Amino acid sequence: MLNEVTATRYITPLREGGSLPGLVEADDLGTYVIKFRGAGQGRKTLVAEVVCGELARRLGLRVPRLVTLDLDPVLGLGEPDQEVQDLLKSSGGTNLGMDFLSGALGFDPLAFEVSAEEAGRIVWFDALVNNVDRSWRNPNLLTRRGEVWLIDHGATMIWHHNWPAAEASAARPYDASDHALRSFAPDVAGAAALLAPQVTEELLAEVTAAIPDAWLTGEPGFDTPDELRGAYARPLLARAAGIHDRVTGLEAPQ
User: pLDDT of 76-124, one tens digit each?
Assistant: First the structure.
C-alpha cells in the first residue's frame, strides 16, 4: 500500500499538462505534486499513475515516490484562481501525491546523453504500458543529478477506458517512432530479456494492491475492487511476454 499523508497547505498550481496538478505541503513535512481526483480525466488517471509508477519502481526505473494525499476542500478557500478553487473543492478525500523533485529539469535529448541500455529499458516499459505520452514534443522525463526520472503516466493503459475491448486493445503493437529516446538506439531486446521475466502474477498483484479502493469502486462490469485489480494485471502480464517483438518505429531511416 502507498503511504497515507494529509495535505496541510496548498502552495501553487503547476500549469503543465491538462490536469492542472498543484504543489502542496503535507503533515509528514514533505512537499508533493498533487494530482486531483476531481480533474477532468477522473480517477482512472490516478489509477494509471499508481500502476505504472509502482511497477516501474519495482523494475528498477526511477520514478518519484507516490503517496495518497487526503485533501480537505477548505484548503481551496483562499485560492484566487476560480478554476483551481473549483478543482480543490471537487477533490475532497483521497488524491495522489508524488515527491517533488527539487532541482530537477525537463529532459532535453540534445543536452543529455542516455545509454542504449537505459533507453531500451524505458522504451520497453512504455511499450508494456502503452504510454502514448513520452514523445519528443512532451518527454515527461526529468533529469536530476545526472539521472533520468519518469513522470506523468496518466495517459497509459488506454484499454482501461473500454474494458469490453481491453484484450484486443492490449494486443496491439507499440509505435515508438515519436518516442523521446528514439535517437539513443534503445536496446529493447536487451531490456525485454532483463525485465520481462520479472513481470509475474505475484508482482502485478503487489502493484495493483496499492490502488486505493476508493478509485476502483463503482466500475461497470466489476463487483469488487479486487476483481478490477485483476483486470488491470492481466493485460500487462500478457503484454510483457512479447511486446518487444511488436515495438515499431525504431528502425533507422532509409
Answer: 777 788 888 888 889 999 999 999 999 999 999 889 999 999 999 999 9
Per-residue exposure over 21-38, b if at least 16 CB sit within 10 Å of its own CB, e if not: bbebbbeeebebbbbbbb
For residue 193, the Cα-to-chain-centroid distance in whole angstroms is 23
Residue closest to 148 by CA, chosen among 123, 174, 113, 191: 113
C-alpha–C-alpha distance, residues 73 and 77, integer Å: 8
Taking each helix axis as running N to C, give the angle between helix 43-58 and helix 201-208, from 0 to 180 degrees, rounded to the nearest 10.
130
Question: 141 Cβ partners below 8 Å, 6+ apart?
Answer: 106, 107, 122, 134, 148, 149, 150, 151, 180
> What's the half-sphere exposure (Cβ side, CA atoms, 13 Å) at 178?
10
Taking Cα atoms as reference points, which of 118, 27, 16, 11 lies closest to residue 75? 11
CB-based contacts of 158-164 (< 8 A; 24+ apart in sequence): 158/130, 158/132, 159/130, 159/235, 160/44, 160/47, 160/48, 160/231, 160/232, 161/44, 163/219, 163/220, 163/221, 163/222, 163/231, 164/221
* Domain extent listing, the chain: 3-99, 105-248
Give the type of residue at 88.
L
Q: What mean pLDDT is predicted for residues 61-84?
A: 90
